[in-house]
Amino acid sequence: MADSLRRIDSGEASDDYLRGGGTGAVWRPPPAKRGALLQEALVRRPGSCIRRLAQGDRARQMQFSRFLHNGAVTVTEMAETAAARTAVVVAGRDVLAIQDSSELVFGGKEARARGFGPIGRGGNLGGLLLHSVLAVDAVTGALFGLVDVKVHNRRGGKVAARRARSTADKESQRWLDGMFSASRVLHEAARITVVADRESDIYEEFARRPANVHLLTRIAQDRRIEAAVDGSTMLFAFSDRLPEQARFVVTIPAAPGRRERAAELALRYSTVAVRKPKNGAAPDLPNSIVLTLVDVTETSVPEQGEPIHWRLITTHTVDSPAKARMMLDFYRRRWIIEDYFRTLKTAGFDIEAAEIQDPDAMVRLVAAVAVTGVTVLQLVRARDGTTDQLLRDAFDPADQPLLETISATLEGKTQRQKNPHPKGTLAYAAWVIARLGAWDGYYGKPGPKVMRIGLQEFHSIKYGFQLGLRDV
């Protein structure tokens, strides 16, 4: 790894720079390295207030502030460190690289005056654009870690018309960059599928796809396709005419303003040759690309909201209802990244409440939180024991004896009050962390807030335990 990846503050090297990222995270940085100390503090006391992270220590608060204001520290460095750890655990696995963006709001006119770029409808708010790529097990839904993270502060000013600019000059380039990062970081995986929502429906992304990557995207644009009858037709009209090839029932999870429900879905699929857009496409792109269309329509009438109608496009070959259903299941894993963003915001670190005035310093804090937030979500994903992950995927293996000791003190006399998961698994740790976060073990399932609080309590216990050892 390049020396620049290990720069901290004055250029001093540190192999432990911002260690972690949710995959085998080891929170034992050298005490003099400010970046590592900040990462450790974010895990011990998740949040965005620098004073709170420093736990009242003025010197530590100044260390964190200097780190965040240090121009030598970059988001790229943090992303590469986290990605390197993710790359280790995906070898031989069927991996989904789920990518999406989220706007972070830091105020209105005052935030804009401080240098935060325009976000929100009309661009009247000031904030940052966060784009993340997560590695997820396609079979179990286990969260392996970060593949890439970018934090963008939009600059004001008039730009050329969209069609007059190349993709590289647009914000949409982030979707291609995420795809290329997945190809590079996850190259040891058995299979890579980049999953994204409608913003990623870009012809150039499919045209420039690396050979070791598949794409699965929800369609946003009604594109021209080649048809056997008249030579050309539109994708949506073609999709609507496809015969139904399967029907099944799935559970649609609850969301803000929507209750969980059972939905009956009709499935259609077909190979299509998507034609190159007439306007704005690079001249070197092929005139057409052969892809697979998967159409998913809800036949039941929901009590709330509109029925589901997803048109998905993929580079995977789909020649049976089972494979079409697999594409649907892959796409439904995309909800994991929505939970991730919620963990960084209202459910966990409350990053939008950070008290940092300088946009460049805020960019660095957002990147650090984006790396650390993976650990909380890993615990949420592992709570039921369905992800088959080991403790070392999110904790220092040396933490296992302490976790087992804490578990024994939290367990009750009845079977339901005991930790049901095998020792050494992430599910075992998730049960302990949830109980420390005030989950009673009976009702509901612990979410990001509970895990965040529990993780804070665990690191407080660990800190006290280590102090006790030094006093012996």
Q: What features would you describe in this structure?
A:
There is one protein chain. With 472 residues, the chain is α+β, with helices and mostly antiparallel strands. It folds into 2 domains: 270 residues, Transposase Inhibitor Protein From Tn5, Chain A, domain 1 (Alpha-Beta Complex); 83 residues, no CATH class. The chain is 35% helix and 21% strand. The strands form 2 sheets. Strands 3, 4, 5, 6, 7, 8, 9, 10, 11, 12, 13 and 14 form a 12-stranded mixed beta sheet that branches. A two-stranded antiparallel sheet has the order 1-2. Strand 11 and strand 12 form a beta hairpin. The N terminus is likely disordered.
SSE map:
Elements: E1 7-8, E2 12-13, H1 34-44, H2 50-53, H3 58-68, H4 75-89, E3 94-107, H5 109-113, E4 117-119, E5 125-137, E6 143-152, H6 173-185, E7 191-196, H7 203-207, E8 214-218, E9 224-226, E10 233-234, H8 235-241, E11 246-252, E12 261-275, E13 288-298, E14 309-314, H9 321-332, H10 335-344, H11 359-382, H12 400-410, H13 426-436, H14 448-471
Parallel strand pairs: 3-7, 7-8
Antiparallel strand pairs: 1-2, 3-5, 4-5, 5-6, 8-14, 9-10, 9-12, 11-12, 12-13, 13-14
